[in-house]
Specification:
Length: 503
């Protein structure tokens, strides 16, 4: 593989020699965390490393646009709109002497012969509406971009997505065997393979080596030969035979078959591999992350009525009942995230009052929770997942007797309590009512008027959802259907969270 990547940058630098007076423009897209699918670890680091490498071989910083999760400016987030808008701007403005490089690192998907890249807000059941079509990008690159040199780098799986890190839906991102003429296409793996991440270095195998070769290529002097080999390099891009074996060897060294790597300190546990036998509702499993145990309960796929009837005390119009179907089960954390668990992952304890290792962590914003999820590979529940897990098959205002299940205004003594000290619901989940409010992934907004499947809430908003009530709330504020909200940067003494692991 290293010989292959060396050739890649050997040719890239040769092209730069021909375009020394022309503009070199790049779009780098890295997606680590997603709204509704499992997170990745190294994609953002990959794109930042690639940016540095490109600057060392003649790209100006102002001509490198980078869209990554965690960006402080919303215009720099890897949303479908931002990606497609930036691609259009770059490709339509390119001049005949220019070089254009597009690089994508994240989850991939396919539908027949159409292949897709997954932006951060991707929804599995909406290919056309929420995915970025790689086919369309290559068509624009080939037919509407006049740049002399056109490069595309795609680092995503082409395998069964349930067995590897970077694939979702169908069989992952399918190899494009023949890119349009004039495009040099470099892909991280062949059809049926996986694109692996190296947690020790914080980078993916492919992009890490791709970026590293940029500096070495600057030492090569045989540019004339590289120019002659340019067309051959394009033709060889989809052919993996001479480097695939080396990549598979590296894959086996890092991830024995099957992958059962014990997480090192500060390394998130790998996502569980789905077996053919689905767990039963309430089944328990424990993961160790950074030396601390995290317990989860299985919540099976199903349909339920979300919201509250108008007859329920404290009902309000924003809790209108509607049918929700969740097509995939998930592992919901058994308790709220504790101060001990937070400190093991983040290295500090933001809680200002009611300090105690097994008490829920508080004074954490929605943004803070996203960073926790990024480091652990876990995710916040959607609002629908949260209420479904809270109800655990129940249909009333609460999942059981409130005094038995919740720390709230009537019994809390105006403070938080250690998690798991009240009775759980039918699926073994503690403190879904009371103790502290829990952040959800969704923007706050009106419920849909009809039945929905796998909802993720509004596409935008100003506030994120909080659920469950707290030690400071009356009984009405702790109902299964009760909704609260706050700005993503909001922190308070009764506000915490719990996380889940997808299927």
């Amino acid at each position: 593989m290293r010989r292959y990547i060396t050739l890649l940058f050997f040719v890239l630098v040769a092209c730069l020699a021909q375009t020394s007076q022309a503009r070199k423009v790049a779009l780098l897209v890295g997606v680590d965390s997603y709204v509704s699918v499992p997170s990745l670890k190294c994609c953002v680091n990959d794109m930042k490393a690639l940016k540095e490498a490109l600057m060392k071989i003649g790209f100006e910083e102002d001509d490198i646009r980078i869209l990554v999760t965690g960006a402080s400016d919303s215009k720099d987030l890897p949303t479908k709109r931002n990606i497609e808008k930036t691609i259009s701007q770059i490709l339509t403005n390119a001049q005949p002497t220019d070089m254009v490089l597009l690089a994508f690192s994240g989850h991939g998907a396919q539908d027949g012969k159409s292949v897709y890249f997954c932006p951060l807000e991707v929804e599995l059941e909406d290919l056309d509406g929420t995915y970025v079509s790689i086919n369309k990008v290559m068509d624009i690159l080939a037919n509407k971009c006049s740049a002399k040199f056109k490069w595309m780098v795609v680092d995503a799986c082409r395998s069964d997505p349930t067995q590897g890190p970077k694939g979702i839906g169908g069989k992952g991102l399918q190899v494009i065997q023949t890119p349009p003429a004039g495009i040099a296409l470099f892909q991280s793996c062949a059809e049926g393979e996986q694109s692996w991440e190296d947690y020790d270095s914080g980078k993916g195998f492919f992009t890490k080596n791709f970026a590293a070769e940029a500096q070495k290529a600057m030492d090569e002097e045989n540019y004339k030969l590289a120019i002659q080999k340019y067309d051959e390099a394009i033709a060889l891009c989809p052919r993996f035979e001479h480097w695939k074996r080396e990549r598979k060897l590296a894959q086996r060294l890092l991830h024995p078959t099957p992958p059962t790597v014990t997480p090192a300190p500060n390394t998130p546990a790998p996502a569980p591999v789905r077996t053919s036998t689905e767990p039963n509702a309430g089944d328990r499993k424990v993961e160790t992350i950074n030396g601390v145990e995290f317990a989860f309960r299985w919540c099976p796929a199903g349909t339920f009525t979300m919201g509250s009837p108008t007859s329920e005390e404290d009902h309000s119009s924003d809790k209108t009942q509607h049918k929700v179907t969740l097509t995939k089960g998930f592992w919901m954390m058994e308790t709220e995230v504790t101060q001990k668990q937070w400190k093991a992952v983040m290295g500090d304890n933001p809680t200002r009052y009611d300090i105690g290792g097994n008490r829920p962590v508080t004074h954490v914003s929605w943004n803070d929770c996203q960073e926790f999820c990024r480091k652990t590979g876990l995710q916040l529940p959607t609002e629908a997942q949260w209420e479904y897990a809270c109800r655990a098959g129940s249909t009333g205002a609460y999942a059981g007797n409130l005094d038995d299940m919740a720390w709230y205004e009537n019994n809390s003594g105006s403070r938080t309590h250690s998690v798991g000290t009240k009775k759980p619901n039918a699926w073994g989940l503690y403190d879904m009512h009371g103790n502290v409010y829990e952040w959800c992934q969704d923007w706050f907004g009106k419920y849909p008027s009809g039945s929905v499947t796998d909802p993720t809430g509004p596409s935008s908003g100003s506030d994120r959802v909080g659920r469950g009530g707290s030690w400071d709330d009356d009984a009405g504020g702790c109902r299964s259907a009760y909704r609260s909200y706050g700005e993503p940067g909001y922190r308070y003494y009764y506000l915490g969270f719990r996380v889940l692991r997808g299927q």
